[in-house]
Amino acid sequence: MSEALGRRDDIIETSNITRWNFTKLLEHPKEYAPEEPRSPFPLRIDLNAKIALWKGNITKLKVNAITHTTNEHMNERNPDSDELYRQGGEALYQEVQEDLRVCRTGEAKMSKGHSLPARYVIHSVGPRYNIKYVTAADSALFSCYRTVLQICKESHIRTLGLGAIHTLRRNYPPDKGAHIAIRTVRRFLEKHLDAFDLIVFVCNEENAQFYRTILPLYFPRDSSEEEYAIDNLPSDIGNEEGEPFIKERQIRILDKPTFAALKAINSDFEQTVDLNKEFFQSVATDVGHHPFANMEENPDVIKTSKMLQATSLEQRKKETRRRYENLMKRAKVEDLTDIASLQCLYRGGVDRMGRPIVVFVGKNYPAHTADPEKALLYLIRVMDSVVDSDYVIVYFHTETTGRNQVAMAYFKMVYNLLDHRYKKNLKHFYIVHPTWWSRLATWFFTTFTASDLKHKVHNLKGVQFLFTKMNPDQIDVPQFVQEYDIKINGPRYVVTVSNSDDNL
C-alpha cells in the first residue's frame, strides 16, 4: 500500500496508486457447484478495478473530490480539519461557514476544493457511537457513506478520495466502521459500476490495519479470499444497499397486528423452538376480530416486544465479544514495545486476599502523543489473562498533568469495547494521591457511564493506606511516587484500619 510523502508540494496522482485488482495475481472467478457455499460478495474483477487502498494525507490527493468528517456546525477543531483548511485556504473555510453552515448527522454537503488538488470537498457528519444506540449509529454512518456516493453520482464526480467518516473521536470502533464503509461502496458499485472511475479508500495509522484486513472480505481478489470471507464476514451484512439490517423494520402494519407480531417471533425462533403454527393462527384470528382489539394494548404484542428486545441485547453482546476477540488477536501479534517502554501499565503481585494487581502510573502516559489504538491493544495484552478471576487495579494519580489526562470519550469507548470479564471481576480500583479534578472525573464517569463500578472505586491519600490492602513487596511503587508521598504526608504517618477497610 502506498505511503504519502511528507513535502507540502507533493500531489498524489491517481495513476501512482495501485488499484485493488493489481495487488494480487489476477485470477478468473471460480466455478462453484450448486451445493457449494458462496460468499455474498463474490470475486468480481470489474469491481476491484474501481477501488484502491492508500495510506496518507487525503489533502494531497489529486482527485475530483475528497471527503471531510466534521460536526453539525461544520467548525470542528481537530488535526484533520485543521490540515484541510490550511491546505484549502481561507476561501474554503469561508465557503463552509457562510454558505454551508450546518450539516446534520448522517448527511453530507459539498463545497469547492479551492487551493486543494481535489476539485471538491464533500463534508459529512458521522454519528457518535454508544453501545446503547448501536442501531441508530450504524444506520447514520451508512447514510453518511451512501449520501457521499450519491452526491458523486449526481455531480458526475468520477474519482473520489474516501476517508473514514467514522473516527475514534466519536468513539466509533474502527473495525465496525470499516465494515459499513466498505460494504456500502461494494453495494453501490454493484448497482452503479459506471458511475466511478476510481474510489480510493484513504486510511491512516488509526485504521490502516482494519482496512487491510476487512477489504478482502467484500472485494476478494482470488478464490481463497472469497472462501475465507464465507466464515469471517459479520452476521449482519446489510440489505441490498449495504444498510445495516434492522429487524423492527420488517414488521408492517396489517389489519391483524397480533398475527404480524407472532409471525415475527416465529421467524426469530423457528430454528430453536418448535412452534405450533395452527395455535398462533387461531390466536391471531380471535384477537384480530375482537371488537376492542384496536383499543387496548395486547399482552401478546407486549410479550413479543420483550422477546425481540432480549434477542437484540444478545446480538449486541455477541457483537461486542466479536470485536474484543479481534482486538485480542491483534494484541498478540503487533509490536507494542513503544507503549511497554513507557512503564505506565504493568503487573504487580497479589493483594492480601490473593488477587492479582494491575498497576497504572498516570504520569508515565503521554496522552497527547501516544497512539490510543496501541495503548488499548497493550492494555488488553497485559490484562486479558488477569481478568478471568477477581483482580484489583492500583492507579497512581501522582503528579499527573494535562498532558497525561485521557479524554473522557476515550474512556467510554474502551469501557464499551472491553470484554464483560473486566467489569465483572474487577474487585477494587484504588486511586492513590487523588486530586479534586480526578475525584470529579471519577464521579462523573461512574455515575453516567459505568455505574456498576461506582462502589469499587476507593480514593487513597497516601501510599501507606495502599499498604493496608497489599504488602509492599507485592507492588513496584515508582520512586517519584514515594518521594511525593513523603513530601505531602511526611516520612511516617499512622493509618487506622477500620472494619470496612478489612473487608475491602
What do these coordinates show?
It comes from Candidula unifasciata. It holds the Pfam family CRAL_TRIO_2. The chain has 504 residues and is α/β, with parallel strands linked by helices. It folds into 3 domains: 231 residues, 3-Layer(aba) Sandwich (Leucine Aminopeptidase, subunit E, domain 1); 86 residues, no CATH class; 166 residues, CRAL-TRIO lipid binding domain (Phosphatidylinositol Transfer Protein Sec14p, 3-Layer(aba) Sandwich), CATH 3.40.525. It contains 18 helices and 14 strands. The strands form 3 sheets. A 7-stranded mixed β-sheet has the order 1-3-9-8-5-7-6, sandwiched between helices. It has a 5-stranded mixed β-sheet with strand order 10-11-12-13-14. Helix 15 links the parallel strand 13 and strand 14. The longest helix is centred in the middle third of the chain and has 35 residues. It is globular and about 75 Å long.
Notable features of this structure?
single chain; 504 residues; alpha/beta; Leucine Aminopeptidase, subunit E, domain 1; Phosphatidylinositol Transfer Protein Sec14p; 13% strand; globular; disordered N terminus; disordered C terminus
